[in-house]
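Worked example 4.2. Below are the chains of a multi-component assembly; read each line carefully before continuing.
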Amino acid sequence: MIHSPYIRKPASVQRVMGTVLLALLPGIAAYVWQFGAGILVNLALASAAAVAIEALAMQLRGRPAAPAVADLSAIVTAWLVVLSLPPIVPWWITLLGVAIAVGAAKHLYGGLGQNPFNPAMVAFCALIVAYPALMSQWPAAGRLDFATQFGLILGGARELDAVTAATALDALRTGMRGGDGVDLVVSQGGAFGAAGGKGWEWVAAGYALGGLFLLATRTITWHLPAAFVAGLALMSGAFWLFDAARHASPLFHLASGGAMLAAFFIVTDPVSGATTPRGKLIFAAGIALIAWIIRSFGAYPDGIAFGVLLMNICVPLIDMKTQPPVFGHRGERP
Amino acid sequence: MIGRLFGFRGGIEPDAHKNESAGAAIRRAPLPGRLEVPLRQSTRATARCIVRPGQKVLKGERIGDPEGVLGTAVHAPTSGTVADVGRYAMAHPSGLETRCVVIEPDGEERWIDHAPFDYRNRSRGDALAWLRDCGIVGLGGATFPAHVKLGRGEGIDTLVLNGAECEPWITCDDRLMRERAADILAGALILRDLIGARELVVGIEDNKPEAIAAMRAAAGAATGVGVVPVPARYPAGGEKQLIRVLTGIEIPYGKLGADYGVQCFNVGTAYAVYRAIVHGEPLISRIVTLTGNVEHPGNWEVLVGTPIDDLLRLAGPRPDTDRYLMGGPMMGFALPRLDVPVVKGSNCIICASPALFPPPMPEQPCIRCGECARACPAELQPFELYWFSRARNFGKAQEYHLFDCIECGCCAYVCPSHIPLVDYYRFAKSEIWARERDKSAADQARERFEFRNFRQEREKEEKAARLAAKAAETHARIAGEPAADAAATPSIQAAADDPKKALIAAALARAQAQKAAVRPRNVDDPSPGTQAEIDAIEARRRRAAAAAEPAPAQTSSPAPETHSRTPTR
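Applying the procedure described above to all two chains together yields the following structure tokens:
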């Protein structure tokens, strides 16, 4: 028997996921423009793998595969994995990443909606710990044509030093270790653009544009991106004001690495993130804090993925402690 | 007066579908061939039937007396003959039956004598009793007795008149306000006087400009009356939401508006109050919207008890109609059958077709997107309640304010995963209620058992005390007359000397005491025949007592058995 309400808003998980995929397109376009079309090969590869793994996992769990594949959530995960990996990683790294994300981080916990950790970030962390060398080979902007990238991805000759360059975050770290000030490192290194990494600032702008689209379509709320951006800006800004020679500016932090991708597409994962308004603020600010600490003092150039996983652990507590007051019960807490 | 509006959080804006029926003026539905008037017209109270089959009744004649605090009277909607008094299916999702009075109209529509009630020169209590006897209940759908809501005559600041009508499709209140604004307002002013409020605020959703204009015209320059358009946002017509919007006051679950100095009545109720006070007419009809997949959507003034299939003929459902909803699409329910009567709470019947109300999409996993939390007017976290209800973690669900849920359906409306969220809450609530019932039943059984033990223990103690007294008396007597009558009472004399015989004497005394103790009171004054029987039994008993050892004191041996049986009851 069907009960009220008898009318439904035309909404679906598929529509939500489709909107996210659509919102990723400006960032991907900037990626292709600055770094070549190799990323598209990875995206295609990862999408096919995600669909296959999703279907297989549903089959193994004895559930219909078609609706799960159709909800597009596996493809969103696949794209986020690809966009956080270097664009010229060998094909099997991409497949491994998708397998970890969809197969392990998602389906081992019970499929869509059940995973406590962000699947894409689980995959990223597993890969960067397992294959640190391959995972740090980032191409410089405009250096590689499509054929070379295609060859690298499918396992051709890996003349890496010729084609890769340190990312801005990496260059800054290495330079600072050498005792140079921020200004000197930036003026010497070819990795830097006007705001963040050379070329990467455009990709970051593309992600930000997509993020605004997500906000406009009410797919995400402002809390998570705002708290993440504010957290990163405040933390880096305070230290930058205190000692600009030893600390990069907030603008640099926001335009570099995965900051914009994270702000609008990673920390906004509803399944593994905090859900209450205040909880979202705490969750995203926590990620920003951890990311900044790892960037500034840790062993990895970027720390967002670790920040996400660490804060994922805190989500049940955050949600429990930040339940908003209920209508008519202001001043009480559950 | 109301200076500004307060928002309520959440809410949704579904297609209103008001235009289908809003243009149709109220028409009087023709007299049906047969009326089934349920005796249960107010919340949790069934009126006591005072008519017999075959009896003639007049229009407006009382057929059911109010019973209990929440009871209201029920009246014959037209003149005719009582054909039957019995259980018939009512308009309820489960097809529940209720006691109904079936009336065959004689077509004459002959009224009882009815006269206005001069509430200004009568006591408040009289006025409330009058409303109860006129069968006035809330016509917004919940059918809460008006006299109970009016019960508190002090501490009420504001009377809110609910003309929001926020559910899609329904237009009965809209039409009533457009056509009978003056009468509604007169009724509302009576309500205001009766409840002792200073001001009257009429809240109407801003998608009903004609109703707003009509009510404003009716209000004219009356002091302390405001007609306020409120944003059309479902569920703006929820009592607590409307009060919040108009006054800023938030009434939590389990509290009444009266606790916060504000009380709310539906416009239809105000109209019924006007009819009852000014014309002395009991509540026997209401406005019902017939709409949806029909040829002629409209609003009809319908006698309570009119069978719904008779009524539907007036609108002409199209052939592809597959369901009939009573109430709106957000909170209404599908009628399991159509041979059920209109009741005082029936505001709308929607003929549903697959095109108008598509079947729900298959349920997908919850992705915790939080859309439901943003739509919830009670500001709950519906997805958390969903997880807890699903996991049968009812304690946690209650901690997260499950019972603050008003089942408005906003969460299910917006859910991208198409989860029937409200059904999960209904399930959780019913499970909790069932457990409460089980628990109180078990508590009662345990109390009964404990009291039984206590009683047996007390009886045993009383018996011991009596025995001791008796023994002491015997000893005293023996001690008092040892020599004087030694020969006459050799056994007792011997008993005094011999411990073994003393025991026997004590046993005899105990047996006697026991006999006195078990002697039932209802044979205090028996008839001679019974007395003879009793004597025979007593004689047998004495023989048996003499033959056997003294009867042991009654033990509590049945107790364990009782104990094992009790909890399963």
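Take a moment to check your reading of the output against the notes. The radius of gyration of chain B is 35 Å. The first strand of chain B starts at residue 26 and ends at 28.
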